[in-house]
Amino acid sequence: MLGLILAQEILSPQALSVLGAGLAIGLGALGPGIGIGLLASGALQAIGRNPEATPQIQLNMILAIAFAEAIAIYALVVALLLKFVA
Amino acid sequence: MLGLILAQEILSPQALSVLGAGLAIGLGALGPGIGIGLLASGALQAIGRNPEATPQIQLNMILAIAFAEAIAIYALVVALLLKFVA
Amino acid sequence: MLGLILAQEILSPQALSVLGAGLAIGLGALGPGIGIGLLASGALQAIGRNPEATPQIQLNMILAIAFAEAIAIYALVVALLLKFVA
Amino acid sequence: MLGLILAQEILSPQALSVLGAGLAIGLGALGPGIGIGLLASGALQAIGRNPEATPQIQLNMILAIAFAEAIAIYALVVALLLKFVA
Amino acid sequence: MLGLILAQEILSPQALSVLGAGLAIGLGALGPGIGIGLLASGALQAIGRNPEATPQIQLNMILAIAFAEAIAIYALVVALLLKFVA
């Protein structure tokens, strides 16, 4: 009977939504993190090759970071929804 | 008895197909997303190196994006099938 | 009682082997797909840099593709074994 | 009845926290490991291209490794918390 | 009752250790495989650029392959332990 109650608690929609929230932010942070690393790597290499172009490179780097960051924020929103919205 | 009913609901084919649909589109969007990023990166670098070749590069970039996008659409189709077709 | 029967169906070796088959071909296609993309990228860049070396590059590209493809076929074989062999 | 007791043991919060700890350090070591590989690759190539700049490159490489290593330590902390803190 | 027995068999520590062994070698072979591919790619490109340096490149390549291979052997050891040690 205790096993049933435990299984009920663990397999309940609320309990599984916690797992889903963890997966959402965990996997959802993977891509944007790698992506920002890649684009910043490119920007830093470009600045190293041609330091006079720093303003344009910086502007475009921040623009691209914003889009990648937004994807991470989508995952954050979904994770918080899964955790706090019934 | 409630535990059994909950387990029945969660482990039923319909419930698991929802999980499968999430995995299908989640993992299926991973590859094409990275792939389009890689090929667009190559295309942008090629245009930066040789701006006069922009038309050919753009044409081939769009051609390659179409094939990568198609893979994402396969995953979308499978996810929608898993969700809505019994 | 219905819950028990459902759990029995879902957690039975046959049912789990279906899951294993999906994982086998799903994850087993990941690596060779990326690998063939990488090696073909290198081959195409090499041909673009030195078009006269196309025959040797093509020969070695096909040789390497064959080995990568073979890994995908291993995954396919395992997936089909899991699905159809009891 | 034995099945219930086993399910109770395996699906209990303590048992699942062991699984979570494995996932935490397993996935949490993935990113920093790859990241340190990438940044050390860049540092070694830079030293190979311009050996006179070794001191600055080494300094910045160690700085960047420290930040990447810190992320792995976060995962280690979470894994140990999940394992030993009730 | 059959469902309980099946669940007991599948969720027993021995059954789950089989799953863990599969995950251990499956995920543990991922990183070293990619890593050896990356380092051999670098070695081959270096030999192509400067064939006279082949002995040193080959020596260092084999050294690095040994360390990457060792990581795969760790995963193999853990997988065999999970499978055969109670």
UniProtKB/TrEMBL annotation, chains A, B, C, D, E:
Membrane topology: Multi-pass membrane protein
Domain of life, source organism: Bacteria
HAMAP family referenced in this protein's UniProt entry, alphabetically: ATP_synth_c_bact
Tagged with keyword Transport: yes
Sequence intervals crossing the membrane: 15-40, 61-82
Protein location: Cell membrane; Membrane
Described function: F(1)F(0) ATP synthase produces ATP from ADP in the presence of a proton or sodium gradient. F-type ATPases consist of two structural domains, F(1) containing the extramembraneous catalytic core and F(0) containing the membrane proton channel, linked together by a central stalk and a peripheral stalk. During catalysis, ATP synthesis in the catalytic domain of F(1) is coupled via a rotary mechanism of the central stalk subunits to proton translocation.
Start and end residues of each V-ATPase proteolipid subunit C-like domain: 19-82
Residues the record marks as site: Reversibly protonated during proton transport: 69
Gene3D superfamilies hit by this protein: F1F0 ATP synthase subunit C
Keyword set includes Cell inner membrane: no
Family affiliation: Belongs to the ATPase C chain family.
Gene Ontology CC entries for this record: plasma membrane; proton-transporting ATP synthase complex; proton-transporting two-sector ATPase complex, proton-transporting domain
SUPFAM superfamilies xrefs: F1F0 ATP synthase subunit C
PROSITE patterns hit by this protein: ATPASE_C (PS00605)
MF GO annotations: lipid binding; proton-transporting ATP synthase activity, rotational mechanism
Protein name as catalogued: ATP synthase subunit c
Main subcellular location: membrane
Keywords: ATP synthesis, Cell membrane, CF(0), Hydrogen ion transport, Ion transport, Lipid-binding, Membrane, Transmembrane, Transmembrane helix, Transport
Organism of origin: Thermoflexus hugenholtzii JAD2
GN (gene name): atpE
